Task: inverse folding
């Protein structure tokens, strides 16, 4: 079986905090499995070596990189989430934009009645849309 999953690489041990935010924000979101760094391994003990998790029922992967990179997340690659209810869209947009950066505020952009784009406090980019 071949599986493709989006992968988030966090730095500074932020993976668990990001996952906690996503699990409390999106429905049908949970940890599937996680392997954590142990004593003597390259990453700080207890940080995520690799994890598989779901957001809105879709599987993703992530890790806490023990290697410091000169790059982080880019908005050019984002997760698109479509909502049935405007109130839920507004709630999630508010949570994800807290401490992050609003790239496009919630508005009618012609292609959607209500759309917003935000980079959360961890640098992960989210396009949030109200289903037509």
Result:
């Amino acid at each position: 079986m071949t599986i493709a999953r989006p992968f988030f690489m966090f730095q500074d041990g932020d993976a668990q905090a990001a996952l906690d935010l996503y699990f409390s924000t999106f429905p049908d979101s949970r940890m599937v499995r996680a392997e954590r760094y142990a004593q003597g391994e390259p990453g700080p003990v207890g940080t995520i070596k690799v994890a598989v998790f779901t957001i809105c029922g879709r599987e993703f992967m992530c890790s806490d990189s023990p290697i410091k990179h000169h790059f982080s997340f880019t908005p050019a690659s984002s997760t698109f989430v479509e909502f049935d209810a405007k109130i839920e869209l507004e709630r999630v947009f508010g949570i994800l934009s807290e401490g992050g950066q609003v790239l496009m505020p919630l508005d009618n952009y012609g292609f959607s009645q209500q759309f917003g784009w935000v980079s959360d406090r961890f640098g992960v980019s989210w396009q949030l849309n109200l289903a037509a």
In short: Helices lie at 15-25, 86-97. The domain at 79-130 is CATH 3.30.720.110 (Signal recognition particle alu RNA binding heterodimer, srp9/1). The chain has two domains: 7-64, 79-130. The CA atoms of residues 50 and 63 lie 5 Å apart.
